[in-house]
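pasting for ref
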Amino acid sequence: MILVTGGTGFVGGHVVHALRAAEQEVRALVRDRRKGARLEAWGAALVEGDMTDPATIEAAVAGCDTVVHLVAVRQGREERFQRVMVDGTRDLLAAANAAGARRLVHMSALGTSEQTKDLVPYYRAKWETEQLVTASGIPSVIFRPSFIFGADGGILPTFVKLARLAPVTPIIGSGRQRIQPIWVDDVAAYFARAVDLDGATGRTFELGGPDLVSWNEFWERLKRARRSRRPSVHVPVRLMRLNALITERLPGDIPLTNDLLTMLEHGDNVVSDTSAVETFGLPLVPLDEQLRRAA
């Protein structure tokens, strides 16, 4: 049995679907059973709980020999990152060890490193959870994906909506920083394969798609996919920060925050080695096809 945390999230739903398609037995930890209806329809068992409640984590992991850990938060106070991501991961690992789990596959993020851990709370939490996973004694695989694109969640639908509705295309800063977006189903395929691939054990893999582009080129490709001729305008980062000061105070999951701007300013978000491609040998969706599917 494989326990999946974060299964009702954007990436989590695709991971659960990929695991079930591979005929794996899946149990999903959910805060609200109603939000897990589609997971249940795919044949996954649901267990109610929360990453801030150790008792429910213990109940969820009981009888599972593999854990796929996807839970993360992207905005909020420092205490929220600590409580949900760091403390929650620590409790999950303790429960998994007690239950005799023999495998753990963990989602980190590209850009996470000892050098960036103090840049924003998100990177700090990702770095600390990586350290916890590595020290847990459970054979593990860590993935660090770049921007994850999909038609049903993540940041790409926001970009598509912006390209459709805005009179001009706003590009943050110079637009010269590079990214390497990966399609969500490709990420899910990596996770599904990692649960039983011996060659991946004990390793950390950076995940990116087959195309490396600047933000300027990304927006040109997106507009081409939408057959849009709207002009692009470069918006100074300081102006975007003023906007983020307002929007990040609004309820819900806001796509643009000051922390995200800090990460964007820091530099390129691209894969530094090809070990994931070499180890897993999975075919990856090209960027133009990603944009066509979402546009």
